[in-house]
Amino acid sequence: MSYLVLARKYRPTTFAEVVGQEHVTRTLGNAFTTNRVHHAFLFCGPRGCGKTTLARIVGKALACERGPTAEPCGVCSACVSIGNGSAVDYQEMDGASNRGIDSIRELTEAVRYQPAVLRKKIYVIDEVHMLTTEAFNALLKTLEEPPPHVTFVLATTEPHKLPNTILSRCQRYDFKLVPASKLGQHLTRIFAAEKLPVEPGAISLLVRESGGSVRDALSLSDQIISFVGADATITEKHVAEVLGVADRTLTRTLVRAVAAGDAGTALGAVESAIERGVDEVQLARAIVRYLRDLSVLQVAPDRTELVDASDEERTELAREAAALDRTRITQMFERMLRCCDELGKTLQPRLVLDCALIDIATIEPLVPLGDLIERLGELEQRIARGGGAVGSSGGGAGPRPAPRAASPGHPQVAAAPAPVTAAPVAPPAPVRTAPAVVTIPTPSAARVEPMPPAPPAPASPAPVSMQPSGPVPAVHKGATGSGPTSDAKLATPSSAAEALATWNQLLSILEVRRKFSLLGYYEPARVMKWTTDEIELGFPVDVHHMGEMAADKSTMEELRAVLRELGQPVKVSVRMLDSRESSAAGPGAARSILETSREQKTIERDKRVAEAREHPITKQVLKEFGATIKEIKTDV
């Protein structure tokens, strides 16, 4: 007697024996139990998942001598004839070979006649999407209203190619690939029934290579059994050698080698795998799949069912995932994924794979962006406090910050800054200041003479009117002084000049803290009032759009949070100034930081122009060429 392959020998004969399609078998079983069987079924899904097998079971359930029943007996003449393919009234057609209108015309003519032996006629059209448009149109009427003794079962792997007129006339069932766990259990039962010893690793590798198809898994099993023989135990190494794929041991060796930076060991493992007949593309895909399993176990160590492996392999994977850094695994995964794409386009796959492994083994591990930002923040704070950039003389290099401990999987990154030399800053022009002016420290490395300290503020100061009696000093973030730190405290001002200076200090602190959004919103604001309870800010007409964004609830809440940290738990209010208030000028008008800075620059520019005009050389030039210059201006 000829050998019967495993895929046919262990073909299910009842709904309960079908693996991994419970959503289909339960629906069909209930339909037969309640006698609500449709006249046309459409089975669609990937290859080897049970479409044709279920079509035969449906035929047995309809034609069984005990039926129609959800559990055909399998021993009556109807079940036996359908099972061995000798039933006259059960016909399986190949849609690719009988795709023309003539074949469908013969079918529609035959359905009018009563069944010869069975209770019903069952027509199974496999790969029905191969029928022509004319054949589909010829089948429409018969498919919609067939005789009561006829049932159609259509099967296809590409349901999107079927016309909607066909889809609307059938009861559709979507099959899916069999999950790895269920397919592994099914293969274990078959090997046990065949009395063949097999390792769990071999089952796992067979399941992975079958891709969820039961028929492919059983066909590969036949091949492995023939290679090993009748008495030997089937191991993972046997499966990998026969199928030309990388087993878990080889993949683990490669990943460990490249993670440790040992490119030589990795290339040696590739060489031995190629000699065994392992394909480069399959090897790269195995590495990517292994890295994916490590990443899953790192982020979800309790969800081991998400990893397609045996219990022993999952334990080994969990140990490996705990030993490697997550950033390193992500870096390796991305590079190997690019390698897989390149392997599909090149004629030299070995060269591409070797270079990819060398690249991964020799590349420096990435430092997380959060660590770099944290180190930059520490460096900025040291520079702002004057302890890490320049000395008191302005030219010496300060001490370097202490190195941070390297995190697991990351080498030490040098974060010491280069010496910074402070540029000489010209002293500002003398400005007449109000008695209560507070000098605001601003970031710089140059030494300046300290200003007289401000008088202490009263315990409960009265509301400060923003109408100073004299010109407000140009306190600007670009001025000289020692820089503010992010942990500075603000004192409630007692005069307009102090309010402007304190507001400038707050903006400088926002800049040190990298609060650039708040800095951009509130820098154009005028300080209209500052008390122990409230800060009122005004926005001129030309920056009303900034005022609207600054008045946003979330923006103001963020500013209040900063003020609370700086010892100012006050209420902040914003109002838009009208045209008269916006255009107010003179010593009695409030000004924002930007406006004050622009006014100071204008004053300084006018002073330099006046000094230039009084220079002896300028006077000499005007004396010699004044008439000529005047004529030229007149002509222009």
Low-confidence stretches: 387-483, 585-589
For the largest beta-sheet, the strand count, sense and barrel status come to: 5 strands, parallel
CATH top level of the largest domain is: Alpha Beta
CA-to-CA gap between the ends? 115 Å
Q: Using the coordinates shown, work out and report the CATH topology of the largest domain.
A: Rossmann fold
Number of helices: 25
How are strands sequenced across the largest beta sheet? 2-3-4-1-5
Would you tell me the overall average pLDDT?
A: 78
CATH architecture of the largest domain: 3-Layer(aba) Sandwich
Helix content: 40-55%
Corresponding CATH superfamily of the largest domain? P-loop containing nucleotide triphosphate hydrolases
- Strand % is 5-15%
* Protein structure class: alpha/beta
The overall strand count is 9
Using brief descriptors, characterize the structure shown.
636 residues, Rossmann fold, Helicase, Ruva Protein, domain 3, Zinc Finger, Delta Prime, domain 3, 5-stranded parallel beta sheet
Overview of the structural elements:
This protein is of the alpha/beta class. It has four domains: 6-174, P-loop containing nucleotide triphosphate hydrolases (Rossmann fold, 3-Layer(aba) Sandwich); 180-243, Helicase, Ruva Protein, domain 3 (Orthogonal Bundle), CATH 1.10.8.60; 248-362, Zinc Finger, Delta Prime, domain 3; 464-602, no CATH class. The protein is 48% helix and 7% strand. The protein is built from 25 helices and nine strands. It has helices spanning 6-9, 22-33, 51-63, 77-84, 101-110, 133-144, 164-167, 180-193, 200-210, 214-228, 236-243, 248-259, 263-275, 280-299, 311-323, 326-343, 349-362, 369-384, 496-512, 516-522, 544-550, 553-565, 579-582, 593-613, 616-635, and strands spanning 40-44, 90-94, 121-126, 150-156, 171-174, 464-465, 526-530, 534-539, 571-576. The strands form two sheets. It has a five-stranded parallel sheet, with helices on one face. Strands 6-7-8-9 form a four-stranded mixed sheet. α8 (180-193) packs across α9.
